[in-house]
User: What shape does this take?
Amino acid sequence: MSILNTVAHTVRGLAADAVEQAKSGHPGLPLGCAEIGTAIFAEVLRHDPADPRWPNRDRFVLSAGHGCMLLYALLHLSGYDLPIEELKRFRQLGSLTPGHPEYGVTPGVETSTGPLGQGLANAVGMALAEAILAQRFNRPGFPVVDHYTYVLASDGDMMEGVAAEAASLAGHLRLSKLVVVYDANGISIDGSTDLAFTESVAGRFRAYGWHVEEVDGHDVEAVIAALTRARERGQGPNLIIARTRIARHSPKEGKAESHGAPLGQEAVAALKANLGLPHEPFYVPA
Ligand SMILES: Cc1ncc(C[n+]2csc(CCOP(=O)(O)OP(=O)(O)O)c2C)c(N)n1
Assistant: This one.
């Protein structure tokens, strides 16, 4: 197993444990997007965990903010000032892992969504700000403003009108430094998305002028390759539709009940056995 897969599995263990400890939260998305998050934080994002406010950092917006344990686990493993003790205090008053929506609390969290769709719209604004600042301040040989905005969005984000409006503007303005990864797991809060949402998201975004490609969201190398292609294209915004399974590798894989409730001790034990992780809570390998 590659180091990146080990990171992804560690993220799964941390997210499952934190939600269990808090007795509330959303384990399905962190388990389903562990490879996507690992690809972004370990290989793609240009950031400095020692200086989270560095002005020219790449931005990462968690539009599917309910999956915030994914982000907290990745920030901890990346070396941000977010010790494991804070992950153990997930969703507790006064902790550095308060949950979604969030702005200005946890080092490394740009913003995360409460109302679905909002993060994607925030990210369009951030990408637009980058383009305006670059045009105003960059000089030949001195690209002082030169960064990307990455987004993780879910089915619920894609259902919302605010995301559609912002995506239309991003296409019109050709915001080429905007990369949205869409966690297409076919599951929403009450069951299969087939119940309410059968449009072609790919067709809609192509019509807005976005470049769209699909990828296996559990193949970390394929996700890195897609992100790299998106970053290097330089022509308009990018949508990467990542096919995933909610609650991947747990007994609740593919089930809507994993969306917003703890997995339960038995399922967490089974998850760790499946991943080859020790049963020790909040385990991080050397
Ligand atoms: C505008 C808005 N409407 C409703 C909700 C309540 N809500 C939170 S998560 C969710 C379901 C999201 O499903 P999906 O985005 O597919 O996430 P997944 O189940 O894959 O984790 C809903 C309806 C919300 N947060 N915002």
Q: What stands out?
A: The CA atoms of residues 105 and 138 lie 31 Å apart. The radius of gyration is 18 Å. The chain has one domain: 3-275.
